[in-house]
Please model this.
Amino acid sequence: MKRILITGSNSGLGLEFTRQFLERGDYVIASCRRPGAAVQLQELRDKHSGRIIVPELDVSSEEERGKLYKQMTSFMDKLDILINNAGVRFGGEKFSDSLENIQKEDFSNIFQINTVAPLMMAVRFLPMLKKAENPIIVNISSVSGSIARKRRKGSGYSYSSSKAALNMITKALSVELDNSGVIVVSLHPGWVKTSMEYTEKAPLMPDESISGMISVIESLKIEDTGKFYDWQGNEVPW
Ligand SMILES: NC(=O)c1ccc[n+]([C@@H]2O[C@H](COP(=O)([O-])OP(=O)(O)OC[C@H]3O[C@@H](n4cnc5c(N)ncnc54)[C@H](OP(=O)(O)O)[C@@H]3O)[C@@H](O)[C@H]2O)c1
Model:
């Protein structure tokens, strides 16, 4: 039974990660911003009682990250997998795809959530991860963050640059943690229908993307640290 901490577990990919890990018999710390409003997580808690907790966590809050760490260390010492899943498509209320509409404020919020928070989560939970046997940090990135694959106009300056920077966090952490046994990867989930903007026409459903990503996570070896894969296990160019 693996102990898995997931951020943004109340919807889309985070919820499906939670559901599938629970079905597999794992223990899930299904964090989200508003546990009281997370009806589907509450249903999962009723169904799998004893193997899931639903703590409050806004990933951008240092105080809440610290509170969760304290809560978890009060009853468990090791963490096997950290999944930095929480993310936002737009940093502000404005549509930032055209140059004329770009607002510098959009970048501050989106970078805090998509880029800085995953790093701070890794730093905070590292002591627990280092105690596990084959610990893994998974940063849910996007092919939009691949500089090598950038072809189309638009697709969001703030979003794609926040994910490109997240990829650098993955690589930098993997170098930093070399010889520690901790594996760090970026994963692209595919284009998946969730509540995120611009996924209405996506061809993939969360169950398919998540079962693919879980297979990739399960097959990871230490040689894979610092790499970027898609949900089918293909390496994505940086
Ligand atoms: N769907 C796709 O096609 C696709 C493709 C590539 C990458 N991704 C990535 O996949 C991840 C999950 O996205 P999704 O498609 O499942 O979208 P989603 O359904 O909109 O889920 C996003 C999740 O992130 C949470 N979140 C946002 N800000 C947060 C914060 N400050 N603290 C904690 N949680 C926060 C949201 O919580 P609230 O409900 O409280 O807002 C929600 O649970 C994201 O990182 C996204 O960039 C998705």
Observations:
- Residues 3-230 form a domain with the Rossmann fold fold (CATH 3.40.50.720).
